[in-house]
């Protein structure tokens, strides 16, 4: 009689999933360390594997390419707990939308901006620089900037609806101003290059948002550091 063929199935367990998640975190942490220290172009996948203490094949199985690894790192660092929630449904945005006072709305935006850039500003600079040497990262950077513009336009539309915008600004111009002021490059110049603290940056940003966008009499902000 022919022998019965033994069927196998992939083994899975909570412990194995935890180990896989821990390995992924180690790779991402190591990649961030090396990307931010040495730059994207100078960081090799073998160097990331060595830093993480894993086999080179493990990195390629998990991420396939260095560009995919950087993209996954960005997604993991940008509010990892909210990844499954659409941007405009996230708690911070709903709180921003609910704020009726124009100046307080802009200061809430400045606080959120400061929080994101404190966590991810250095990584954003890596992505910006890598965009010039990698077409996949260029697409990622374009998407990041487009999403930033979308959020700024939404805030400006709220201000326009409340008749709080300066009379010499329309929605398009105000959006461009807010996008430029809130751009990660400005954070990099002030915090990383000039040594401002996170608190100084957030305070300045809230003030300059208000002074540049709001109708006279709707703000008591100062643009001083």
Would you summarize the structure shown here?
The protein has 225 residues and is mainly alpha-helical. It has helices at residues 14-38, 45-52, 56-63, 66-77, 91-98, 102-130, 135-161, 171-181, 184-193, 198-213. The protein folds into two domains: 14-65, Arc Repressor Mutant, subunit A, CATH 1.10.10.60; 80-213, Orthogonal Bundle (Tetracycline Repressor, domain 2).
List keywords for this structure.
Arc Repressor Mutant, subunit A; mainly alpha; Tetracycline Repressor, domain 2; 2 domains; 10 helices; 68% helix; 225 residues
Topology:
Layout: H1 14-38, H2 45-52, H3 56-63, H4 66-77, H5 91-98, H6 102-130, H7 135-161, H8 171-181, H9 184-193, H10 198-213
Helix pairs in contact: 1-2, 1-4, 2-3, 6-7, 6-9, 6-10, 7-8, 8-10
Give a structural overview.
The chain is mainly α and 225 residues long. The chain is built from ten helices and no strands. The protein has helices at 14-38, 45-52, 56-63, 66-77, 91-98, 102-130, 135-161, 171-181, 184-193, 198-213. The radius of gyration is 22 Å and the shape is elongated. The model has no long low-confidence stretch (mean pLDDT 87).
Give the N-terminus to C-terminus distance in angstroms. 87 Å
Task: Give the strand content.
Answer: under 5%
Helix content: 55-70%
SSE string: HHHHHHHHHH
Instruction: Find the count of extended strands (DSSP E, 2+ residues).
Output: 0
| CATH level-1 class of the largest domain | Mainly Alpha
**Which shape, going by the Cα principal axes?**
elongated
Low-pLDDT stretches are none
Number of helices: 10
Radius of gyration: 22 Å
Structural class: mainly alpha
The average pLDDT value, as a whole number, equals: 87
The CATH architecture classification of the largest domain is Orthogonal Bundle
- Major pleated sheet: none
Q: Return the CATH topology of the largest domain.
A: Tetracycline Repressor, domain 2
């Amino acid at each position: 009689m022919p022998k019965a063929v033994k069927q196998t199935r992939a083994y899975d367990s909570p412990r194995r999933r935890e180990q896989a998640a821990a390995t992924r975190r180690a790779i991402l942490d190591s990649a961030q360390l090396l990307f931010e220290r040495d730059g994207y172009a100078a960081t090799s996948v073998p160097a990331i594997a060595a830093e993480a203490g894993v086999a080179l094949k493990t990195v390629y199985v998990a991420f396939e390419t260095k560009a995919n690894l950087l993209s996954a790192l960005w997604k993991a660092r940008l509010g990892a707990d909210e990844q499954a929630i659409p941007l405009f449904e996230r708690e911070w945005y709903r709180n921003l939308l609910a704020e009726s006072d124009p100046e307080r709305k802009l200061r809430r935006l400045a606080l959120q901006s400061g929080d994101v850039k404190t966590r991810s500003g250095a990584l954003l600079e890596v992505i910006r620089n890598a965009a010039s040497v990698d077409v996949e990262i260029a697409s990622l950077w374009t998407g990041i900037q487009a999403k930033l513009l979308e959020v700024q336009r939404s805030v400006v539309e709220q201000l326009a609806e409340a008749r709080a915008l300066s009379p010499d600004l329309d929605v398009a111009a105000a959006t461009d101003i807010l996008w430029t002021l809130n751009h990660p490059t400005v954070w990099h110049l002030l915090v990383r290059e000039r040594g401002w603290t996170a608190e100084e940056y957030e305070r300045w940003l809230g003030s300059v948002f208000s002074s540049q966008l709001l109708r006279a009499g709707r703000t008591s902000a100062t643009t001083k550091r």
